[in-house]
Amino acid sequence: MTDELEGGTAILVLRGDGIVRHANAAAEALFARPLSSLIGRNFGLPLARRSRVRILGTSGPAEADLILRSGSWGDQPALLVSLRPVEAIPEATPIEPDRAAEERYMLVARAANDGFWDWDLNSETVHYSPRWKMLLGYGEEEIGATISEWFERVHGEDIERLRAAIGAYLGSDDPHFEHEYRMLHKSGTYRWVLCRGLAVRDEGGKAIRLAGSATDITQRRLAEEQLAHRAFYDPLTNLPNRGLFLDRLRHAVRREKRNPNYLFAVLFLDVDRFKRINDSLGHTVGDRMLVLVARRLELSLRPGDTVARLGGDEFTILLDDIHTVSDATHVADRIQDELAKPFQLTGHEVVTSASIGIALSAAGYDKPEDIVRDADTAMYRAKALGKARHALFDTGMHEQEVRLLKLEADLRRAIERDELLVHYQPIIALVSGRIVAVEALVRWKHPERGLVSPGEFIPLAEETGLIIPIGEFVMREACLQLRAWQLSMPGETDLAVSVNLSTRQFVLPDLVSRVEAVLSESDLDPRLLLLEITESVLMEKPEAVRNMLAQLRRIGVRISIDDFGTGYSSLAYLQRFPIDNLKIDRSFVSPLGEHGENSEIARTIVNIGHNLGMTVIAEGVETATQLAQVRELECEGAQGHLFSHPIDSEMTAELIAAGRSW
Ligand code: C2E
Ligand code: MG
Ligand code: MG
């Protein structure tokens, strides 16, 4: 293979006008002239693509087969002439291998950015084509001819690899040498080059010469690096993405398997209330915030740790090589401190916090995804515990999470399969002692678990949004039921029904029309529908809340505040909103003593309610004493086990029809 270039085919690169620009070693031998005297000579333009020509070399005339092709030299068009001395072809040698070499040479020469080099391994000198020097920013005379000068320009990180590759190639019988490395450009930057070459060997097989091409592949390498970057980094924050994070985590897991003393932790972080910032200040500001959060997270970590953005406002952190759990919790605290410093966001000052879940490698994970999942579960726990805190994962959480997932799946089906039903609990007017209203309370007839109470699924339904169809089902069911009772019990024209409304429902922009639709469908007088909202609803944007309440009142329905006293709203808050009834939470009712003990707060609530023109209803009345006390406090209404537990619609109808009074 070595003499494909050497003894076999001479190659000349000609300018369009026939002047020789470059020649290979075989051409030097054929013409018996050194390269320096070949370059610049006028070869003359061959007339045919293939012809047999006479060469007048210094050692006498010779015949050669000439093949002409067009190609390029550097960035200029060029003609490539290959000459195969006629007598140099041994009878038995097939013609194909030579052509292959020719072809290869052609390809090399055609590439726009190629330079050529020819290294004499004995003298340690090297010849470069002008183009090769130009690739590195040097003129014709600027680079010396020793190989060491060449190696000096190779990037420090690549030099060992390059030497090893050359050594391996020369010692092998691999026909082609190919290697990519960086070389110093005159400007001080590095260029990526692809070197391809062939060794020329003596009879003993020892390589004496290595020659080939050099291509500037800097653009390609940069593009590849950018693509790799895009594949592994989040474009917004420039942090590693999920893929790279899992990759690093995989290494940590492997390391932990080898070395049981090695401990690492994964933190799963979710920015608290980010959605609100994003919604109120806009996505651009939200994005800016995420970038700033990313920088602060980096500040809170040591150099060996990895922080990644999984997407949205979720970040993960790999704490490498920690000693104890408290190393991880300290980092979590440090992150909270960083996030608590105000963020300046184009005219807005925002402080934030994060919910952080922590999972430790000590639990013995095999898959990186599993540890991320557990950190995520712990993060949910931290959120549920009130945000701005961290929680450590324990296996109990996992079971609970699985249970919740199953519950959610079941709940979705429950709606489709009509497993939900409504029970009713009477509300008594204390003046008459008679039932004036019933509260609709949802129940879930679970196929395996029997009757499930709302406390077990309402929070989940609120989180998942399922509360919207559930709430609407209850409202429709309750209104239809009340209308049916009116028709079957003609005396009961004033009985009202009270329906609980979740915050998620209350903020629906079309809530009013949804309520109107249910009222007209059930043909119910709007005055007989009471909507119960909790104090937390009042904590939403006050203007929007007032507006919504006013609209609801305009269509004729009445509004009750449920569980009053357990939320955050102050009594002063109440006067801002058009509200009809106040339901005092049972935590104020149950401690009421026979002699008026523990009645101060309840009394204050009742008084203020009355001053604001509201009707007050006591919840959770269980005993005759409590009933006497709420009468004493002049509550208008009462509800509780003393009168009745929530019961199904048939029993409720019987109770109403019985006309009992307390
Ligand atoms: P709530 O609206 O305050 O309903 C009163 C709750 O107190 C009911 O619990 C009722 O069974 C219970 N209760 C009534 N009297 C007494 C008593 O004397 N002593 C005691 N210890 N408890 C009493 P339930 O039915 O389990 O409902 C719990 C909560 O679930 C409700 O509290 C309400 O916030 C929510 N909920 C129920 N149904 C719905 C619904 O359709 N939509 C929405 N959004 N929430 C609902
Ligand atoms: Mg209620
Ligand atoms: Mg209540």
Question: How does this model look, in words?
Answer:
- The protein is of the alpha+beta class.
- Helices cover 40% and strands 27% of the residues.
- The protein contains 24 helices and 26 strands.
- The strands form 5 sheets. It has an 8-stranded mixed β-barrel, surrounded by 5 helices. A 5-stranded antiparallel beta sheet has the order 2-1-5-4-3.
- α9 packs antiparallel against α10 (283-299), α13 (395-416) packs across α14 and α15 (467-488) runs parallel beside α17.
- The N and C termini lie far apart (112 Å).
- The model is unreliable at 1-7 and 88-97 (pLDDT under 50).
- Bound molecules: ligand C2E and magnesium ion (2 copies).
- One magnesium ion binds next to β23.
What are the salient characteristics of this protein?
single chain; 662 residues; 5-stranded antiparallel β-sheet; alpha+beta; 27% strand; 24 helices; binds magnesium ion; binds ligand C2E; 8-stranded mixed β-barrel
Instruction: Compute the average pLDDT.
Output: 86
- N→C terminal distance: 112 Å
Radius of gyration: 43 Å
Bound molecules: ligand C2E, magnesium ion
Give a quick summary of the entry.
This protein has 662 residues and is α+β, with helices and mostly antiparallel strands. The protein is built from 24 helices and 26 strands.
